[in-house]
Amino acid sequence: MKYRTRTHYSDSQKALMWERWKTGWTLHQIGQLFDRPHTSIQNILARTGGIRPPQRCRSAAALSLSEREEISRALATSESIRSIAARLGRAPSTVSREVKRNGGQDNYRAAQADSAAWDRALRPKQCKLAENRPLARLVADKLRLLWSPEQIAGWLKHTYPGDESHHVSHETIYRSLFIQARGALKKELLEHLRRTRGMRRSRHYTQKTATHGQIVGAVSISERPASVEDRAVPGHWEGDLVFGSGNSQIATLVERQTRYVMLVKVDGKDTQTVVNALIKNARKLPQELYKSLTWDRGKEMAAHKRFTMATNIQVFFCDPQSPWQRGSNENTNGLLRQYMPKGIDISGYSQHQLNAIARQLNERPRKTLGFQTPAEMFSESVASTR
Questions:
Q1: Where in the chain are the domains?
Q2: Can you give the pTM of this predicted structure?
Q3: What's the pLDDT band for 316 if we cut at 50, 70, 90?
Q4: DSSP per-residue string spanning 257-301
């Protein structure tokens, strides 16, 4: 049997890997560039948790390779350390230490000394969470509450505006989770992220297909009023179905201005069952806070006219394969997967349990709201209608 030798990738090849990874290529696609299996690519990217390491550079104060070559040639002619240092414009102690740590005057080799110095320079600075254990514990507590790193970072700045010791960027939190060598946050906390992958990756894709199709009498999102588009007033919602195993599903509804979430138990995905559940849910809110609903092209809303007649709520439909037109709802569906991972049967959740999950989502601070919570914003909207 013929075995391939171990692949060693050049710096330029690794740079190409990271570039493709950032733009959303899969491991298989990147592997095809180098005619190698995806596991070969994964071994490179996984070392830093899918996060591209910063480009290394030498300190301006460090000895260069050309200076080391000059030292090597001078030693071969038995030139003194002080003479070498004077010619290089370096302190004699600098040249003396360089020679002693790399074999002495008889065994000094410039290339080996330069390579050894480059390896010794691999001393990453300790990250803030490793240095500040109280802050690390606070971050860990919020991760266990299923807050995202961005929510945690924003909440810390909002809560401790004048205390830099309580500030940390969301990128630092991600790096501490995915690069375990930092020793700041335990790997088990990864399971509390919205997407529990072993590596960070780009998300430039959609699962919607061209089969999301034709709805009779559908009113296009292009006809939606400008006041809905710019989130100027509350009362305009985005909706979708989230599916589980065993033909189970729930409806998710998000108010566009406040990002307030409602979860609706749905016993089937046929349009009559879905519309009946949405009509029942809509009657819980005053008309001022439920004026329109934007949905995708799923056939579960084929009976949208009956929904509008029963509730006086206009339904708008996104363009095919355009989930970003319901961006708030798509984001919320991603958050919901922390509570309902893909592949589980969600038919057993009661409406009471769904309300509890929605309450947790509504009590999480949101960057787009200035790190206020949807619950706070929606309460203000309710108060203003009275």
A1: 11-48, 65-120, 128-192, 221-384
A2: 0.52
A3: very high
A4: TT--EEEEEES-SSHHHHHHHHHHHHTTS-GGG--EEEE-S-GGG
